């Protein structure tokens, strides 16, 4: 039987999308060109937003117990400590703590959840052609042609889906080459967070990883390193920097990599029945730990909307809101991570002077610490209207994230909001308004609340609030379009 959606790419973005769709009852095939699951760590930072996405999916599991809690970032300049920045603490936004956890571990939990939902990943399936028409999409992988209604391209920076659809990916390189290695090292520094050492144009950073004396060490490649350095050359340079700046030494090597830091944003996130998410739509500097979390946010957003369209509860114009909501998020991440990279890896004497005398010392300022922590958490992400009237209204407004909390359900059972969401919606307030929402949206949990009722989306954002049935009907009609299903009795 033809799947309703083909997801290309089995990284965190693709797996998040697949789990979200399967939990909504959508049939999915997940294709990945790799021979099997990755075992290297790659991305490390699971921000509070990413923790919440996994929580709503039922894929968080024991990651908080297996990961390292992020406590601080220490910055040393010219051999002396210059800033100590506390991170990972609970924010005023009432979210979970950030974690240092391997991307491979996160993917493992997502694959386990996908299996529980009746799905799986098909490995060794590179996509060689995509043919889209008004009625569906034909995906070619090897000698097989798969007919499907929709495709989500979550296949990374070199996305075959994006290229097949002719979607532009403009941008610029920020740093030509960056060296990275996961190593067992003798390093007498705190394992409660990251430490970096700056010395002129030189930068070295070390991140603790779960496991005995395991660290990720990274630095820009020197000009005299070969274009395609081997593991010995990568470890040789990183080891010499580690010895110079810390007195530490590398004992053994788990993994090495060379990558180029780019800043790119797709011209569009959707072309007909093909949608892009994650690195296929945007890539940026890894500084700040935003990439994986942004991709998972893309996936959760597009999946619940696509599920509504496939079920006949919404027309396809609902999918236009995916790019409208998520592309500005990626654009903001590109700007902030690019700025951070340019500050840390200053190329001129003037920029390095500003870095060492102004920018880094400001990290000791408590207000700046709170502001950076809130921004990096991605819990501030909002899809409020662009109208000036709504933009500055106090209190929760449609588009804002609704923090998790314990509430009473219709049968007086204590229920956590995020346990109720995904794929369900929730109405906090009037049971009558919950019944109206249920007629159009399907699964909607009614939860007790006071004041205006709030309709909460599967991704934890406020969709509508008010007390009028007519107002809710108007919102549902304008957002979903003409229903293709008969309302339930």
Automatic annotation (TrEMBL):
Keyword Flavoprotein attached: yes
Coiled coil (residue ranges): none
Keywords, sorted A to Z: FAD, Flavoprotein
Pfam families attached to this UniProt entry: FAD_binding_3 (PF01494), Rng_hyd_C (PF21274)
Signal peptide: none
Domain of life: Bacteria
All copies of domain FAD-binding, residue ranges: 4-336
Keyword Flavoprotein recorded: yes
GO MF, one annotated term: oxidoreductase activity, acting on paired donors, with incorporation or reduction of molecular oxygen, NAD(P)H as one donor, and incorporation of one atom of oxygen
PANTHER family: BINDING MONOOXYGENASE, PUTATIVE (JCVI)-RELATED, TRK SYSTEM POTASSIUM UPTAKE PROTEIN
Protein's recorded name: FAD-binding domain-containing protein
Species of provenance: Mycobacterium aquaticum
Lineage: Bacteria, Bacillati, Actinomycetota, Actinomycetes, Mycobacteriales
């Amino acid at each position: 039987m033809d799947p309703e959606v083909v997801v290309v790419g089995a990284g965190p973005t693709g797996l998040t999308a697949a789990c979200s769709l399967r939990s909504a009852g959508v049939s999915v095939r997940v294709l990945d060109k790799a021979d099997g699951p990755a075992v290297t760590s790659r991305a490390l930072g699971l921000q509070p937003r990413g923790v919440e996405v996994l929580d709503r999916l039922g894929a968080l599991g024991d990651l908080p117990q297996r990961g390292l809690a992020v406590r601080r970032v220490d910055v040393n300049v010219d051999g002396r400590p210059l800033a100590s920045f506390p991170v990972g603490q609970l924010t005023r936004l009432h979210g979970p703590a950030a974690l240092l956890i391997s991307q491979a571990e996160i993917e493992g939990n997502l694959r386990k959840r996908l299996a529980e939902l009746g799905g799986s990943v098909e490995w060794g399936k590179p996509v060689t052609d995509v043919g889209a028409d008004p009625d569906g999409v034909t995906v070619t992988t090897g000698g097989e042609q798969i007919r499907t209604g929709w495709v989500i391209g979550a296949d990374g920076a070199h996305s075959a889906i994006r290229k097949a659809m002719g979607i532009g990916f403009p941008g610029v390189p920020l740093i030509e080459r960056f060296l990275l290695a996961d190593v067992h090292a003798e390093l007498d520094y705190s394992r409660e967070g990251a430490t970096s050492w700056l010395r002129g144009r030189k930068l070295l950073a070390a991140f603790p990883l779960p496991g005995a004396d395991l660290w990720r060490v990274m630095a820009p490649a020197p000009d005299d390193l070969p274009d395609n350095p081997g593991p010995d050359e990568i470890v040789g340079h990183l080891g010499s920097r580690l010895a110079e700046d810390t007195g530490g030494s590398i004992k053994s090597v788990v993994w090495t990599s060379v990558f180029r830091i780019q800043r790119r944003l797709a011209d569009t996130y959707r072309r007909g029945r093909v949608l892009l998410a994650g690195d296929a739509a945007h890539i940026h500097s890894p500084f700040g730990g935003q990439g994986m979390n942004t991709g998972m946010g893309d996936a959760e957003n597009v999946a619940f909307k696509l599920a509504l369209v496939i079920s006949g509860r919404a027309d396809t114009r609902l999918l236009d809101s995916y790019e409208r909501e998520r592309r500005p998020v990626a654009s903001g991440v590109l700007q902030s991570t690019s700025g951070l990279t340019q500050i840390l890896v200053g190329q001129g004497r003037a920029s390095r002077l500003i870095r060492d005398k102004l920018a880094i010392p400001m990290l000791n300022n408590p207000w700046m610490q709170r502001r950076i922590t809130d921004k990096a958490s991605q819990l501030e992400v909002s899809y409020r209207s662009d109208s000036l009237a709504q933009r500055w209204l106090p209190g929760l407004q449609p588009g804002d994230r609704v923090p998790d909390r314990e509430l009473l359900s219709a049968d007086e059972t204590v229920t956590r909001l995020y346990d109720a969401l995904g794929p369900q919606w929730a109405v906090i307030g009037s049971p009558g308004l919950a019944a109206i929402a249920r007629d159009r949206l399907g699964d909607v949990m009614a939860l007790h609340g006071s004041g205006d009722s709030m309709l909460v989306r599967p991704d934890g954002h406020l969709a509508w609030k008010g007390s009028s049935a007519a107002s809710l009907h108007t919102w549902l009609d304008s957002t979903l379009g003409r229903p293709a299903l008969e309302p339930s009795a």
